[in-house]
C-alpha cells in the first residue's frame, strides 16, 4: 500500500528568504507534498501580514517543484496538532549553525513527546545561505544595505518600500 508522504515546513517567514526557498525546493524532492505553513501569532508583531507572507511564498515557489507539490497555508496553535490534521508524517526544518541545532533539538524533542508519529527532518542550509536570517535581512535593508540575491525579488521590493519610506 502506498501512502503519499506529506511534510510541513513551518515558520514565521517574516519575510521569506532564498534560504527558505532552497529548503522548500529540496524538501519537495523528498516528499510528495510539502505544506509551507506560516505561523499566525497575534502576540508577535510582524513586518508583513500573514496574507503578504503567503503571497511572497506563492510567487517565489511557483516553478520550483512540479505543480501541486508545494502548498502554502496558515496555522495557529500547536504545530503537531496542525500536522496531524493534515496527515503529515514529518516536519522539515533548516539548520544553519549550532545555535539552530540547539533550538531545533528542543522543539523536535517536545514535538516528538506530543506526537511520536510525527518526525522532524532537518536539512542543512546551503553554504551560500548559512548566514541569512529574516531578522538580519530586515536590519540590513532598514539601514540602507542591499540584500539582492538573498531574498526573492518580490520580497526585496516590498522590504525597501516598507522599511525605507519616510
Ligand atoms: O521560523 P521560526 O519562527 O523559527 O518558526 C518557529 C515555529 C513556527 C516552527 C514554532 O514556533 C512553532 O512550531 N510554533 C507553533 C506552536 C508550537 O507548536 N509550539 C511548540 C513547539 S515545540
Ligand species:
4'-phosphopantetheine
Characterize the main sheet.
5 strands, parallel
Contiguous runs where pLDDT drops below 50 for at least 5 residues: none
Q: Kindly name the structural category.
A: alpha/beta
How helix-rich are the residues, as a percent range?
Answer: 40-55%
Number of helices: 6
Integer-rounded radius of gyration: 16 Å
Within the largest sheet, what's the order of strands? Answer: 3-2-1-4-5
Order of helical and strand elements: EHEHEHEHEHH
The share of residues in extended strands comes to: 15-25%
Overall average pLDDT: 96
Shape: globular
Distance between the termini: 59 Å
Number of strands: 5
Describe the SSE topology:
Blueprint: E1 6-11, H1 18-30, E2 33-39, H2 50-61, E3 70-75, H3 79-86, E4 90-95, H4 98-114, E5 119-124, H5 134-142, H6 153-163
Parallel strand pairs: 1-2, 1-4, 2-3, 4-5
Bound molecules: 4'-phosphopantetheine.
Describe the structure.
- It is a single chain.
- The chain has six helices and five strands, in the order βαβαβαβαβαα.
- With 166 residues, the chain is α/β, with parallel strands linked by helices.
- The termini are far apart.
- 4'-phosphopantetheine (PNS) binds at residues 10-12, 39, 78-79, 107, 110-111.
Amino acid at each position: 500500500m502506498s501512502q503519499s508522504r506529506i511534510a510541513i515546513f513551518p515558520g514565521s517567514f517574516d519575510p521569506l528568504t532564498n534560504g527558505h526557498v532552497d529548503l522548500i525546493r529540496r524538501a519537495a524532492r523528498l516528499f510528495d507534498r510539502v505544506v509551507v505553513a506560516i505561523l499566525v501569532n497575534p502576540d508577535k508583531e510582524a513586518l508583513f501580514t500573514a496574507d503578504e507572507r503567503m503571497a511572497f511564498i506563492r510567487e517565489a515557489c511557483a516553478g520550483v517543484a512540479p505543480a501541486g507539490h508545494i502548498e502554502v497555508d496558515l496555522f495557529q496553535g500547536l504545530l503537531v496538532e496542525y500536522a496531524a490534521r493534515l496527515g503529515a508524517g514529518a516536519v522539515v526544518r533548516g539548520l544553519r549553525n549550532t545555535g539552530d541545532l540547539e533550538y531545533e533539538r528542543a522543539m523536535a524533542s517536545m514535538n516528538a513527546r506530543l506526537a511520536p508519529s510525527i518526525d522532524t527532518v532537518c536539512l542543512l542550509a546551503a553554504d551560500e545561505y548559512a548566514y541569512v536570517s529574516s531578522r538580519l535581512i530586515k536590519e540590513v535593508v532598514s539601514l540602507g544595505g542591499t540584500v539582492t540575491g538573498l531574498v526573492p525579488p518580490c520580497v526585496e521590493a516590498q522590504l525597501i518600500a516598507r522599511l525605507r519610506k519616510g
